């Protein structure tokens, strides 16, 4: 299992468990965007701790994934960026625009809680 | 040119005065036709020889006209001969350049050096080297004879060759190594034995000893291109394989985890370009071992369409497929040395080097 997508409350937790190649990355992107609609989620957390590198393609994929999620009404937080990957991304001159980041899952959930104000209660 | 042989004058030889007169006339006839004075002498002699040989058969009254006719014939046949030679001269031109005089000397010097180097090897090692590399016998066969394993012989052969390289360089140099440390250091360098190199502090010695730094250069250069891993690239999954191999090699060379990620990322970028633009290619990942530093070499090569404008491709934000446009320019920032060679229609080669930032070999 390269990627696991679990639902927790209003959020989806997507963990990347292995190094992904480009086509796997693309399939992950499609699957996640689809799940957002299916599960009616308001937020997505993507855990990239197990990803070996975040190169320009992976970063672009995460960036467009966040854009698509936002169009589907969900905010995206990327967590688990290792110090090595952070160093490399900065050296490469790369950032993931429009994507929120947090250190780990716990802080990621806090960020999502702040970003997604609770929906008004349904009318009686 | 046939010179006149002393001819025994036949019966009725001409009187000296008569001969002198004939000679003067012949000379005048020939000199009016031939400019080169040496050739004139030759032809006069030849003509007189012919006239004297025929003396018995000719009427003394017609001797002078006969000599004149002979002289004309001799001159004519000489021209004919020269013409033929000139016409065919190009046929004898040697198209292969003649050996330069110093080549033979250099060859001999090299042969002497190898011979000297061979005498410095232990008898057993020399016998094995000669049996395998000169007589072309199989290791398996030699192993049966000496009742050892082929593997052991191969290891012995490798040590022997390393030793031969050092002895050869020493013999070519004609200088004695300045310190007793030099020979073992060069030997460790030649054999690529990293543990032994650490024990002897090879990098320290090379810094301090100009003799070894000089002699060791070909040895260490040789060692640095001997060890490389090749990954054939043809699909997305190969990108992951290449970058993971690169990281493993980097870590095994003592690079930090961060540098491992940096190197893996750069490999990922260049390998992706192979898959995307050329379809297939290869990535070679190897060790760079120089006396004072150690590093990693990545060569990514394909025979695809090539990059039409390398400068443009190296500019930030230029992407031909909707990426971030950070691939190649990013790699240049990630690695210490970065060279793109590309020819439109002939393929692309990207060569990248990363040097380990601190410490000599075996540090960390």
From TrEMBL, chain B:
Q: Which GO terms describe its biological process?
A: DNA-templated transcription initiation
The protein's superkingdom reads Bacteria
Q: Could you tell me which residue ranges the Histidine kinase/HSP90-like ATPase domain spans?
A: 258-358
SMART domains, per database record: HATPase_c
Q: Name one GO molecular function term.
A: sigma factor activity
Q: Which InterPro entries match?
A: HATPase_C_sf (IPR036890), HATPase_dom (IPR003594), RNA_pol_sigma-70-like (IPR039425), RNA_pol_sigma-70_dom (IPR014284), RNA_pol_sigma70_r2 (IPR007627), RNA_pol_sigma70_r4_t2 (IPR013249), RNA_pol_sigma_r2 (IPR013325), RNA_pol_sigma_r3/r4-like (IPR013324)
* Keyword set includes Transcription regulation: yes
Q: Does the keyword Transcription regulation apply?
A: yes
Keywords from UniProt, A to Z, are: DNA-binding, Sigma factor, Transcription, Transcription regulation
Gene3D superfamilies xref list = 1.10.1740.10, Histidine kinase-like ATPase, C-terminal domain, Winged helix-like DNA-binding domain superfamily/Winged helix DNA-binding domain
Assigned protein family: Belongs to the sigma-70 factor family. ECF subfamily.
NCBIfam families given for it? sigma70-ECF
Q: What is this protein called?
A: Anti-sigma B factor RsbT
């Amino acid at each position: 299992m390269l990627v696991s997508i679990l639902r927790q409350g209003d959020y989806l937790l997507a963990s990347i468990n292995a190094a992904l190649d480009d086509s796997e990355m693309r399939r992950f992107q499609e699957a996640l965007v689809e799940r957002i609609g299916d599960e009616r989620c308001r937020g997505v957390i993507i855990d990239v701790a197990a990803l070996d590198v975040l190169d320009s393609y992976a970063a672009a994929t995460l960036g467009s994934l966040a854009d698509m999620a936002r169009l589907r009404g969900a905010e995206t937080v990327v967590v688990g960026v290792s110090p090595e990957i952070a160093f490399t991304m900065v050296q490469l001159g790369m950032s993931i625009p429009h994507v929120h980041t947090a250190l780990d899952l716990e802080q990621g959930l806090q960020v999502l809680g702040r970003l997604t104000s609770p929906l008004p209660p349904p009318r009686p | 040119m046939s010179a006149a042989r002393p001819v025994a004058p036949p019966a009725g030889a001409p009187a000296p005065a008569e001969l002198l007169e004939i000679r003067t006339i012949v000379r005048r006839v020939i000199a009016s036709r031939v400019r080169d004075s040496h050739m004139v002498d030759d032809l006069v002699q030849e003509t007189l020889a012919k006239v004297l040989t025929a003396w018995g058969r000719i009427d003394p009254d017609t001797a002078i006209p006969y000599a004149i006719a002979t002289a004309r014939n001799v001159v004519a046949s000489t021209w004919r001969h020269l013409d033929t030679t000139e016409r065919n001269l190009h046929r004898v031109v040697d198209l292969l350049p003649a050996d330069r005089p110093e080549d033979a000397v250099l060859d001999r010097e090299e042969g002497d050096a190898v011979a000297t180097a061979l005498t410095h090897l232990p008898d057993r090692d020399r016998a094995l080297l000669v049996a395998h590399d000169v007589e072309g016998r199989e290791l398996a066969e030699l192993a049966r004879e000496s009742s050892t394993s082929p593997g052991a012989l191969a290891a012995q052969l490798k040590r022997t060759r390393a030793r031969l390289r050092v002895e050869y360089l020493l013999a070519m140099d004609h200088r004695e190594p300045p310190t007793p440390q030099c020979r073992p250091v060069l030997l460790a360098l030649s054999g690529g034995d990293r543990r032994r190199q650490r024990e002897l502090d090879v990098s320290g010695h090379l810094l301090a000893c100009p003799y070894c730094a000089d002699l060791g250069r070909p040895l260490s250069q040789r060692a640095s291109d001997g060890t490389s891993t090749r990954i054939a690239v043809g699909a997305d999954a190969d990108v992951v394989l290449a970058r993971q191999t690169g990281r493993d090699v980097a870590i095994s060379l003592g690079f930090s985890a961060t540098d491992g990620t940096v190197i893996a990322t750069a490999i990922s970028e260049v390998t992706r370009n192979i898959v995307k633009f050329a379809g297939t290619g290869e990535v070679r990942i190897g060790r760079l071992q120089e006396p004072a530093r150690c590093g990693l070499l990545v060569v990514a090569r394909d025979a695809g369409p090539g990059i039409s404008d390398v400068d443009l491709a190296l500019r930030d934000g230029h992407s031909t497929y909707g990426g971030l446009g950070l691939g190649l320019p990013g790699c240049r920032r990630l690695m210490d040395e970065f060279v793109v060679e590309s020819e439109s229609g002939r393929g692309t080669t990207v060569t990248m080097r990363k040097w380990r930032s601190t410490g000599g070999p075996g540090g960390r």
